[in-house]
Amino acid sequence: HVQLVESGGGSVQAGGSLRLSCAASYYTSSRYCMGWFRQAPGKEREGVAAIHADGRTIYADSVKGRFTISQDNAKNTLYLQMNSLKPEDTAMYYCAGGRIFSLQSGVYDYWGQGTQVTVS
């Protein structure tokens, strides 16, 4: 059972940057696809970015060109670099692991507890 722990959230002004991290309990990149999701109050959880075990990435249109997903296999850690942040990026951000390369949350098996990002 994979355990995921997010960190790096916080409050930032519009136009600023944050880097989220997701530490996995064991080596995941060769077996799982990893993704970042977010959920704002009153809204459904939405896929932000995902990375395949072979390195392919996909992004939601709303974050293309601003966010970058990456992983450090040696550290069993997933990252989300977020630049040019906007108030509409405000949400709880979750990392997830699964066997299907997708931005659909329903196909992911393992979830972290989330880290809050607030952009003002």
Shape: globular
Sheet-strand content, in percent, reads over 45%
Cα radius of gyration in angstroms: 13 Å
Largest sheet: 7 strands, mixed
H/E element order: EEEEEEEEEEE
Structural class: mainly beta
Count of discrete alpha- or pi-helical segments spanning 4 or more residues = 0
Question: Which regions have little confidence, pLDDT < 50, spanning 5+ residues?
Answer: none
User: What is the total tally of β strands?
Assistant: 11
Q: For the terminal residues, how far apart are their CA atoms?
A: 37 Å
Overall pLDDT confidence: 94
Share in helix: under 10%
Structural key phrases:
120 residues, mainly beta
Walk me through this protein's architecture:
This protein is mainly beta and 120 residues long. Helix content is 0%, strand content 49%. The protein has no helices and 11 strands. The strands form 2 sheets. Strands 2, 4, 5, 6, 9, 10 and 11 form a 7-stranded mixed sheet that branches. Strand 5 (46-51) and strand 6 form a beta hairpin.
